Request: fold
Amino acid sequence: LSLENLLRKALERNEFIVYYQPQVLTHANTITGMEALIRWRSPLHGMLSPDDFIPIAEETGLIVPIGEFVLRSACKQAKIWEKMNLHPLRVAVNISSQQIEQPNFVDYISELLQEFDLPGHVLELEITEGTILRDINMTNDKLVKLSKLGVRIALDDFGTGYSSLGYIKKFPINTIKIDRCFVHDLPGNPNNSSIVTALCSMADGLKLELIAEGVEKEEQMNFLRTLKCGEIQGFLFSKPLPVEEATKLLVNER
Ligand code: G
Ligand code: G
Ligand code: MN
Ligand code: NA
Reply:
C-alpha cells in the first residue's frame, strides 16, 4: 500500500484526531485560544505526529480533505465550548498553501461558520510567510475576503521564512507567532533577546497581537511579560492535549 493510500484509508477510517494546545495571556494566565494540532492514531504504528505525515499529505494533495477535517473538528469544538460557556472563544487552525489555493477556500470557510453558527472571529487561520509569498496577489485577495468574514489571520513560525517586513501591514494580519527557535534560549541568548525585543516593539507599534511559541520555562515567560508580549503558547502552560483534557483546563479556569 502506498503512503498516499494509507493516508486515504486513515481518513476513511477516522484515524485522525485533533489535539488542542492553549494560548495564554502572559499577564493573567487566562486561556484565550486553542491551537488545533492533528495527530494520526494508527492501529499499526501508534500515535503519529504531523511531521511524519503532513509532508506526504501535501505532496499528494490529501492535505485538502485532511485540512477540512481539522477545520470542521475545530469549529465543531468551538461551538461545544461556547455552549458550555467556556473560554476560549478562539480556535487556531494551521492552513497549508494548497488549501488556500483551492478556488472555493473562502466559501468553504464561510459555509463552515454558518453551519456551526459561529462568528468569524472565533476562527484564527495560521499561515506561514512561505504561503503568502507563493502567490502574493491571490493570497492577499483571499485574506481580505476572510477578514471581511471576521476570520483572524496569524502569521505562524514568524522569523523563519524570507520575511519582508513590508508586507505585514499590507496584508490583513491580526497576529504574529514568534517561532520557538527565538524563544527556547531566552533570556540568556543576547541575539534572540534582541530579536524578540524588537519583534515586541514592532508588534506594539503596528497594533498586531503577539504569541510567543515554545515557552517552556518560567524565566522565558517573565522575560516576555516584561516586553509586554501579549500571549504565549508552550509546554510551560500545557502541551497539546486530547480534547477531553483541554476541556478540563477550560472548566477549571471558570
Ligand atoms: O503538534 P506538533 O508540534 O507535532 O506539530 C508539528 C507541525 O505540524 C507544526 O509545524 C504544525 O504547524 C503542523 N501541523 C499540525 N497540525 C496541522 C494541521 O492540521 N495542518 C497543517 N497543515 N499542519 C499542521
Ligand atoms: O509550527 P506550529 O507552531 O504550528 O507547531 C506547533 C508545534 O509546536 C506543535 O507540534 C507543538 O507540539 C510544538 N510545541 C508547542 N509548545 C512547545 C514547546 O514549549 N516546546 C517545544 N519544543 N515544542 C512545542
Ligand atoms: Mn501553528
Ligand atoms: Na509555529
Q: What stands out?
A: The domain at 3-252 is CATH 3.20.20.450 (TIM Barrel). The pocket of guanosine-5'-monophosphate (ligand 2) is lined by residues 21, 37, 94, 156-157, 180, 213-216, 233-235, 240 (CB under 6 Å). Residues 63-83 form the longest helix (21 residues). The mean pLDDT is 95.
